[in-house]
Write a structure and sequence with these properties.
binds ligand F0G; alpha/beta; 375 residues; 38% helix; 12 strands; globular; 6-stranded mixed β-sheet; 4-stranded parallel β-sheet; 13 helices
Length: 375
């Protein structure tokens, strides 16, 4: 569609949907530093089957698993890595529950930068570890949780300036991640959704997306902004607890636990921005159990063909809960953000209910009849 700002055509309308479609709104001065793997431009899928079951006509899933390394992190990483090159950095470092590390490793490989990741030992999903290894990053495992890994990278980058911090404390990461909001509005023909539901860990994504909606509103492209609903796992929910208790500070959760390893975070570094996004948008936060997460993951996969990792399924589980609690109206246009691809975490296979499969002896002449009898 064709937008006008102050009577002038917006420069990006001829470009395809992607992070760099919005080049003019991203903080890179010189194009020659841009490092890209074609990120963004992910599908916004109208989920009619799941929506019918939930009593929602207008349910959409923005599936960030369609990004190059399989998660939303690529939106931020293409911008932050490009900025790192522009600033002349050669060593980039992050703490991670897996996806940030996988993304940073891929973009560093593409740009020829040295990548260092610090991760909690034994707590990162297998697919993500595989990504980090194949892209050739240096991996340091610590015998603590993500929050301790985060403290370590902050200390490292403060004490040794040649290591450049690539976690969501890096403002250029958030600039890339805000483009999800732009894309959703464009995919909805210039309209903002009524509600955006997404999982919250460190809180970078919800803050960045809220900024994006604000910018489209300021530019006059959209008229309103959505309510932001952040979802956390019940045993790793410092933000949801603060929101429910109407506090403007959080109490970190020691030893956070959840099957959704991507959001197993007790002390989110962006908590002030998250509370601001939720309060300004008149949104809210919910907690969901591991059981609800796994059910939602299966539901989205089996009813809509969208396979997401457990942290992402938290948004669907949280949607169900918000509807039941009357915090979302059945007439609302709701977008759930699914943040990462399901293939990243094969460990959930052991939680699947028994799945029947059959042995087929195709050497027997009547094997087709046998097959048909089972159906
Ligand atoms: N969903 C997935 C799949 C994630 O990997 C993360 C964060 C989140 C949601 C939460 O996003 O932190 O911006 O609130 N993963 C980080 C990592 C912590 O290291 O990959 P957030």
């Amino acid at each position: 569609m064709n937008f006008l700002i102050s009577g002038r055509t917006i420069p990006w309308t001829k470009r395809g949907l992607s992070v760099w479609r919005y080049r003019e709104l991203l903080p890179i001065d010189n194009d020659r530093f841009i490092t890209t793997l074609a990120e963004g431009g992910t599908g916004l899928h109208h989920c009619q089957r799941l929506g019918r079951e939930l009593g929602l006509k207008r349910l959409y899933v923005k599936n960030e698993g369609e990004n190059p390394t399989g998660s939303f992190k690529d939106r931020g990483m293409t911008v932050a890595l490009s900025k790192a090159r522009e600033l002349g950095k050669s060593k980039v470092v992050c703490a991670s529950t897996g996806n940030t590390a996988a993304s940073l490793a891929a973009y560093s490989a593409r740009a020829g930068l040295q990548c260092i990741v610090i991760v909690p030992e034994g707590k990162v999903a297998a697919g993500k570890m595989l990504q980090v290894m194949i892209h050739g990053a240096k991996i340091f495992q610590i015998s603590g949780d993500f929050d301790e890994a985060m403290r370590a990278v902050v200390e490292l980058t403060e004490r040794r300036k040649r290591f450049y911090l690539m976690n969501s404390l890096n403002p250029f990461r958030l600039e890339g991640q805000k483009t999800l909001a732009y894309e959703v509005c464009e995919q909805l023909d210039g309209h903002s959704p009524d509600v955006l539901v997404l999982p919250v860990g460190n809180g970078g994504n919800i803050s960045a997306i809220w900024k994006g909606f604000g910018e489209f509103r300021t530019l006059g492209i959209t008229k309103v902004k959505p309510r932001m609903i952040g979802i956390q796992a019940e045993k790793a929910a410092p933000i949801a607890k603060a929101v429910k208790q109407k506090q403007n500070w959080i109490r970190p959760v020691p030893n956070p636990r959840t099957i959704a390893s991507a959001i197993r975070i007790g002390s989110p570094v962006n908590w002030t921005k998250v509370l601001r996004a939720i309060n300004e948008s008149r949104g809210t936060a919910e907690t969901v159990s591991d059981k609800e997460i796994l059910e939602a993951q299966r539901e989205l996969a089996s009813k809509e063909g969208i396979f997401v990792e457990p942290a992402s399924a938290a948004s669907i589980a949280g949607l169900r809960q918000s509807l039941e609690a009357g915090r979302i109206d059945r007439s609302d246009l709701v977008v759930c953000v699914t943040t990462g691809h399901g293939l990243k975490d094969p460990s959930i296979a052991e939680h699947l209910p028994h799945h029947e499969s059959y042995t087929l002896k195709i050497t027997q002449p009547d094997w087709i009849e046998r097959l048909e009898r089972i159906l």
